[in-house]
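Q: Hi! First time doing this. I have a protein sequence and I read that you can turn it into a structure. Is that right? Here it is:
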Amino acid sequence: MAAAFVFRMHDKGPELVREVLLERGWEEYDGGKREEEDWNLYWRGSAFHSSEYQNLLPWQRLNHHPKTVGITRKDCLARHLRRMRATFGSALYDFSPAAFILPNDYTRFLAEYNKLRLSRRCSIYWICKPVDLSRGRGIFIFEDIKDLVYDCSVIVQKYISSPLLISGYKFDLRIYVCVKSFNPLTVYIHQEGLVRFATEKYNLSSLRNLYAHLTNTSINKFGPFYRTEKGSVGQGCKWTMSKFRHFLHSLDINELLLWQRINNIVTLTLLTIASSVPSCPNCVELFGFDVLIDNKFKPWLLEVNYSPALTLDCQADVSVKKGLIGDLIDLMNYASTDRFRDRAYKKQSGSQSPAGIRVGRRTAPNGQHIPPVRVGNFIRTFPFNAATLKASQHKLDVTIITQELQKLTGLLASGHSDETKWRRDEGTRKMFPGKVARQTLLWIIIVYNLSVCITSNESLRFQHLSSGKEQLIQTIWEWYDKTKIRKTSRDLCRSVLTLKTRVFVKVFKEQKQRSIPAAQKKNVITSNKQNGCARQLAEYTGTIFPNLHRENRCHNYPLKGLNGNPGGRGWEERMLFISAGLILNSGISPC
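A: Yes, that's right. Below is the predicted 3D structure, encoded as structure tokens:
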């Protein structure tokens, strides 16, 4: 019988983690039958001791990095953000209201309170939170300073009083972030998350009503309206992130920019502690970032959760968290020999410990290792180009990283092709091999993510191509070279659409299991002419993501003129929208 991977849980641990691992054929550690080091994964809700990091063996993994409390405790996070704001400017670190740590900062808070009260006509509201409590405990909102009463260390922040509402209800986003490594910094964001709703309609006239102002499930599941229908929100108090994306499609906003700003919040927050976290390659860390969106679609960081809750309170939890844990295990990159533990490594006398990333790695021309772009629903959001890859190696160069984030955000904010501003830089050409014409950075992002979508979309049960996603990207660049496409966005659009049909042919030939009618597949495969390619892509997209058609995001746009005459002004933008729609409906991050 083949050896099994072994997991170890502290104080029984989350039942969901145990369930997922047992379903995968893992065995639970039994101290009475196994030696002390005879395990592959040690999972616990609290921090590990320093000795446990020092004694970690090559086949073992821990679910926490050391010294991450700098962003998971509210007062520590406030101090780090204050420091970064002073160093890099308030324009960059403007995603969290200034925090006052009481009682130490009481004088500063009083000065700010009086200044705002005298200078503004509208009411100013404040929120008070204990620094070391979770699940909404001890939180209250106040307008008058006489209502500020506390008996422990707290932080006070300006309350974001104009949140985006759905059917009149306040909500926030729980973003699941996995840090694979702090040195070099490697960050993944899971494309499924949770949208957490308050269970009573938002109303500033009732500040003491926590069911209207707090979104914590631990509070709202005991609310009187938890099980009642609440407009678009429905019953309960949670949506999946996929459902929220569908809601965003109905709004006239720049969705790519919104998600990129959320990505920025995650990266900039992690940069506050990245240089101080000791290197520990056999660890991962799952954070829960809570993000609020205001009525101007600006995202705000509320807090960062250590060991985010993995309980299953509703169907949204089941849909999101079970896949989340499975993808997290895959991200740990176990080798087949790890199941044999010390027996495997005793045979390798004098060998180095295989700590760190070993599976799915790609090497750049300068010898740097590039972590995989996608593992399950985890998408790598950092590093996202050659400059950030280089800046995260050895000594972290925060200045370069912040500059690259600002460039990328500026690209998405501008919303149109401008080759003089978006041309590929030297480092990016090295990261993506081939004599590629000067494509805009945004098109590179779209082509890259479309290709990932084609090779790993679960709706069609695609198995990854044997050559892998990285090889497919290489093929794309080589195909660009052979066709010698002109350096214009219009020709790139048309070439991408033609390429998609060719990729479909290759994928369908390699797949035995198919989940759409043969007639539809034949239409997609045989229609290889440029003039019909856009329509075929739209129809095929509709097969994978019916919401595109329900939201009228594809067929309402004219797709004519693909033989060389663009269909009027804005043709590139329409093609961009269709491609971006495919990305958004697939849940793939734009970076």
